[in-house]
Design a protein that fits this description.
The chain is an all-alpha fold and 495 residues long. The chain is built from 21 helices and two strands.
Length: 495
């Protein structure tokens, strides 16, 4: 399935598309995934997933290119080390920075793929013992992590999570089938379509952001990019611990619901500086942080697929979109997917390996033509993206209602992000809201209303304890840290 000419052609096309989208400042890897969804309607399952995997892997890497040449990160995952890469460009080391981003992104991606291959089947076998009680606590734990991880203001995360759960309530109630929040509209009885909403939140919001942005375009500060592979072997020999640490952290963070490559890159860059033997060089054009963070952001991609495939819980916004595509292709995520469709799972593993290998030659090509990509006029590109979104969304069900959902979701996402509200919890609320309700209702029916049954099984009790620990222990630790810092500031201030 993977090596059929059609699948290979789809991977090459999706790779070039992902490299282009990632290299254009402001267009994210999530947007690349959302724009691909309408195209996947017409593909068999494996080519559709191949398009998603390769496009996102390429987009995450190519986001480094404008960050290095323009000091504008192509994707949020590249923002953590954009200043470092641009400082290297100023010092005449653009080739080394771009090469480190390319090579160690591929290495990190392969590391994350190995973790996916090892962990996902083992977790799936364990998850076969789960009932609705365990899934209820697992979904609740995932929603909790999404709020706590996605920003330094958890209250804003709670607000957007509740907004997502509210949207998930639209449609027919479970189990009575009574209409909720449909306002007499027949189209809304089926609920709010996840795919139109995702396209709106990640593509339309970017179009709106471009329209209101009045800042002048940045100029490329280098005339020609030379051989970016020179010196990479020396970096691999000098920083093996950093590569392993970044890849491990990226995979672990990617597997947490709502975290994703962006947070993995920031955490990895901070860890690299914290444990570096030369911390004073960070911020002045030092390649160590780029090596570690570049490995982390691409390894997070594969890590995010572990909970998505095993439990149907997305690790980030990209896998939230992918889960929608999996449902469309009758590959419902969950532990039974590993027993009923093992050939598709092995195909996914192979796709990740191939995508990370072909990233190196295609990435070299992208770097060579980077100056031309960066000069593509945005006032031509954005109307084309808007047109593509409208046509693709209409094609899902041939109804203008989906187009309206997409446009409204785009405006809402833009307003939320403009006011620094994270939208990842909202996405998870929509994706997991139905699962949370379904497992709660099923558990209540099975236990005949006895709430103690929710902790009556050992795994369910363990997940419940972990959930309550996250609810109460982390805020308590944060309060204690704030109190200690306040005490230190007051003791240091002159009397």
């Amino acid at each position: 399935m993977v090596f059929e000419p059609y699948t290979i052609a789809v991977m090459l096309g999706a790779s070039l598309f992902g490299l282009f989208v990632g290299a254009v400042p402001g267009l994210t890897a999530t947007m690349a995934t959302a724009l691909l969804v309408p195209v996947t309607f017409f593909m068999p399952p494996i080519p559709a997933i191949a398009a998603m995997v390769t496009a996102t892997a390429m987009a995450i890497f190519s986001g480094d290119i404008p960050g290095c040449l323009l000091r504008i990160p192509g994707t949020p995952a590249s923002a953590a080390y954009t200043d470092e890469a641009f400082a290297m460009t100023r010092k005449g080391e653009a080739e080394l920075a771009l090469g480190a981003g390319l090579v160690f992104s591929a290495v990190g991606g392969l590391f994350g793929t190995v973790a996916l291959i090892v962990a996902a089947p083992a977790l799936a076998e364990f998850a076969l013992n789960f009932s609705s009680f365990e899934y209820f606590w697992l979904v609740l734990l995932g929603l909790t992590c999404a709020v706590l991880i996605t920003g330094d203001q958890p209250l804003k995360g709670v607000v957007t999570l509740l907004l997502g759960l509210l949207v998930a309530c639209v449609g027919l109630g479970n189990p009575a089938g009574f209409p909720r929040f449909t306002f007499g509209n027949a189209e809304m009885t089926g609920g709010i379509g996840m795919i139109p909403m995702m396209i709106g939140m990640f593509a339309i919001s970017e179009v709106i952001r471009y329209v209101v942005d009045t800042s002048p375009p940045a100029e490329v500060v280098v005339d020609k990019v030379g051989n970016v592979m020179r010196g990479q072997w020396a970096l691999a020999k000098k920083y093996p611990v950093q590569i392993l640490r970044g890849s491990t952290l990226g995979t672990a963070v990617g597997a947490l619901p709502g975290a994703g490559a962006d947070i993995a890159a920031w955490m990895s860059y901070a860890m690299s500086k914290r444990f570096s033997k030369e911390p004073e060089k960070f911020g002045t054009g030092h390649v160590e942080g780029i090596v570690e963070s570049g490995a982390a952001n691409n390894s997070a991609l594969a890590g995010a697929w572990i909970p998505a495939l095993v439990f149907g819980i997305p690790g980030d916004s990209i896998t939230a979109i992918v889960i929608g595509v999996l449902y469309m292709k009758n590959m419902n995520p969950g532990p039974t997917l590993f027993t009923t469709n093992p050939q598709n799972i092995y195909a996914v593993f192979l796709l990740f390996i191939i995508a990370n290998i072909i990233m190196v030659p295609l990435g070299l090509l992208c770097i060579k033509v980077a100056k031309r990509i960066l000069r593509v006029p945005r006032n031509v590109l954005m109307p084309l993206i808007l047109l593509f979104c409208i046509v693709g969304t209409f094609a899902i069900n041939n109804t203008p209602f989906d187009v309206a959902v997409m446009l409204v979701a785009g405006v809402v996402a833009y307003v939320l992000e403009a006011n620094r509200y994270p939208i990842a919890p909202a996405i998870l609320g929509v994706v997991l809201g139905g699962m949370l309700e379904e497992n709660f209702i099923t558990s209540m029916i099975k236990s005949e209303g006895d709430l103690s049954a929710f902790v009556g099984r050992p795994i369910a009790a363990g997940l419940a304890a972990l959930t309550f620990l996250v609810w109460f222990a982390l805020p308590l630790l944060r309060a204690l840290r704030s109190r200690r810092q306040a005490a230190l500031r007051s003791s240091a201030s002159p009397r």
